[in-house]
Amino acid sequence: MTWHWRYENANGGEVTEGVTPSDAFPSQADAESWLGESWRELLEAGVERVTLLEDDRIEYEKMSLRPE
Asked: Exposure of 3 by Cβ count < 10 A (0-12 exposed, 13-18 middle, 19+ buried)?
């Protein structure tokens, strides 16, 4: 099993340009830790929301990168 992030813009479209695809992570905790370190750069690149996947299964989706 591997974990990875899908990046989305404000309209829900997938963002692939201007961002480095996230690596495949061995655990959910590793993926979440990486996001905690990288969310600002993703936001600057036009990513508004992220979805966490375990292989093809969605763990959670459309999590905003904007601080509340």
From this structure: buried
Q: How far apart are CA 53 and CA 23, in angstroms?
A: 12
Radius of gyration of the chain (CA): 11
pLDDT at site 4: 93
The pLDDT of residue 5 is: 94
Tokens 């292989």 — which residue? 55
Q: What would the pLDDT profile of 2-35 be if each residue is shown by its tens digit?
A: 999 999 999 999 988 877 766 789 999 999 999 9
The phi and psi torsions of 7 (rounded to 5 degrees) equal: -100, 140
Cβ–Cβ under 8 Å, residues 59 and 32: no
